[in-house]
Amino acid sequence: MDDIIHLLPDSVANQIAAGEVVQRPSSIVKEMVENSIDAGATEIQVLVTDGGKTCVQIIDNGKGMSETDARLSFERHATSKILKASDLFNLQTMGFRGEALASIAAVAQVELKTRRAEDELGTLIQLSGAKLERQEPVACPVGSNFAVKNLFFNIPARRKFLKSNQTELSNIVSDFQRIVLVYPDIAFTLYNNGVELFKLPAASLRQRILDVCGKKLNAELLSVEAETSLVRISGYIGKPESSRKKGSNQFFFVNGRYMRHPYFHSAVMHAYDNLIPAGEHVSYFIYLFVDPSTIDVNVHPTKTEIKFDNEQPIWQVLSAVVKEALGKYSNVPTIDFDVEDRPDIPAMGTGDPSSYQMPKPTAATYNPFKTQPKTYERKPTDWQALYQGMETFEQKTGSKTQDYGSLVSPDEEYLLDGYVRKGGSEGQENKTWNPSSGREAELPWESFAEVAQLPRFQYKGRFIVVPLAKGLMFVDQHRAHVRILYEAYLQKLTDKTHISQGMLFPEIVQFSKAEELAVQQFQDELACIGFELTNLGGGSYSINGIPSGIEGLNPQKLLHDLVYVAIEQGSSIKSEVGNSIALAMAQSAAIVYGQVLTDEEIHTLLTQLFQLSSPMRTPDGKIVFTILDHHEIEKLF
């Protein structure tokens, strides 16, 4: 019987390795720029064509390579960093030049021109699919000039999975930013199709942050600095008032390398407890320096998550450092955003209902409903109807409130046993939904319109509670309004119609380079929603019109949220982007938790919700309402 195990040809092995290193054009930018940094470059140019799919060119003024080194750099397992296994645990540089170049050359056409200062002539090398096609002396400046053309030209299946030029460019900008924020002493430029996107001279760290993320950050940043035996921490954090729901610039770096670290992120956000609204975030640029031997070996070129030996004590140090910086910031307000115990509805027969004041209609608590009463008034007549209905059915049936149904129409008997059954005419198939298990089915939502007519009350400034025949319905007020507004904004996008409200005094919004790319790509979608923008140049836009119905919201902050969604979505399919923009718009404009609603407002909210074809969940899948069965309540006792 013939042997079946054999060694792969180098060409195939290189393509497999390339699959780990080269995922998209941004991977090439990351690897090649890090190589230039390791080569001691003080000026690095990045030039991309068609989002990097046609060409990625990296030009640096580093030390260059000899003829022999230039040729060896494209061989597998060639590196200038490691001589023995123990070196893996003390890597201070960015990457493995030879390993990355071999993988890149396997899936692209590569041209290299490089020269050392001590050499009169440099070296030209051309490869195609890892096959050497040309090598000869050439006159060129000191440093290296790599041109990587036609990525995945020899793997059509991989090339067709690349995204649009704009999306690939956004990925390049993202990786580019992560690198330049670590090396403010190096000058960087980035061009796309000959258009300059970034020109970053050597500068201080703070200035580099402003050059990359926008000058508006200058008034928002607080310095952090600490040094212990475990870790040295430096960088900047955002002031509490600069918080936003989406789009915050949040960067962690360890020993000069970008990383994601949810655990350390929680340490930062823990320091902002009670200083920013729940669900919002602040920008931060935090640099950690530790002994390289105390972190897991990170030899995978695309890995961004790192395991620390001393994560818990570093977490405590990091949180303390951020708290100290916030404490030194003299204008930090002492605000408690916890509304868990807010007495929205006073106990029956106690207190003066008129003493419960509505919050002032500021941007954070803007109520999109038209009525804005100054006081919250409890309506005892509704409660009397509720209790009278319960007593009537208790007398008729001899049982307790599980038989109460005078406030539920006969068509809604599917609510009476804790399950929701599909109603309607005879012959229709019955399906069920169990609130406790979360199983869903097609439901006669039009019958739920009558729920808005039942007695109800607000609980904890978050839930609307509606007593039903055999249980309680809990409606999340914020999510319900998100569901309602989403449908409205999506309809405007679909119909290409919008109602824009002109601004008496246009406002100026400043975007970073990455944000401006998204604005240019999705300006049509923003216009469909109702935003009228004029490009003033330099990333500045004039807001001349805003969507009607969002009065009271901060249009600059809302625009940043929407642009962040467009960047995060990263899709060339405009309908998908429109869905995301409509959702972000709804989330920003929806009533907030803690806002007290009048009975009329609750009625309007429930009526609009249950007129929708899909009121069960928000567009991003969160449950809007649930029903707690009476039998489940009894079990609690």
Describe the structure concisely for a colleague.
By secondary structure, the chain is α+β, with helices and mostly antiparallel strands. The chain has helices at residues 10-21, 25-38, 67-72, 97-106, 156-159, 165-180, 205-213, 262-271, 311-328, 380-397, 477-495, 513-521, 523-529, 555-569, 574-589, 599-609, 630-635; strands spanning 43-49, 55-60, 109-115, 122-128, 131-138, 143-149, 187-192, 195-200, 221-227, 232-238, 250-254, 257-259, 284-289, 420-421, 432-433, 457-459, 463-468, 471-476, 500-510, 532-537, 540-547, 625-629.
What does this molecule look like?
A hairpin with a 2-residue loop joins β20 (532-537) and β21. The protein is α+β, with helices and mostly antiparallel strands. α6 runs antiparallel to α12 (513-521) and α11 packs across α16 (599-609). It has helices spanning 10-21, 25-38, 67-72, 97-106, 156-159, 165-180, 205-213, 262-271, 311-328, 380-397, 477-495, 513-521, 523-529, 555-569, 574-589, 599-609, 630-635, and strands at residues 43-49, 55-60, 109-115, 122-128, 131-138, 143-149, 187-192, 195-200, 221-227, 232-238, 250-254, 257-259, 284-289, 420-421, 432-433, 457-459, 463-468, 471-476, 500-510, 532-537, 540-547, 625-629. The chain is elongated and about 90 Å long. 38% of the residues are buried. It starts with 9 loop residues before the first helix and ends with a helix. The strands form five sheets. It has an eight-stranded mixed β-sheet with strand order 5-4-3-6-2-1-7-8. It has a five-stranded mixed β-sheet with strand order 9-10-13-11-12, with helices on both faces. It has a four-stranded antiparallel β-sheet with strand order 16-17-18-22.
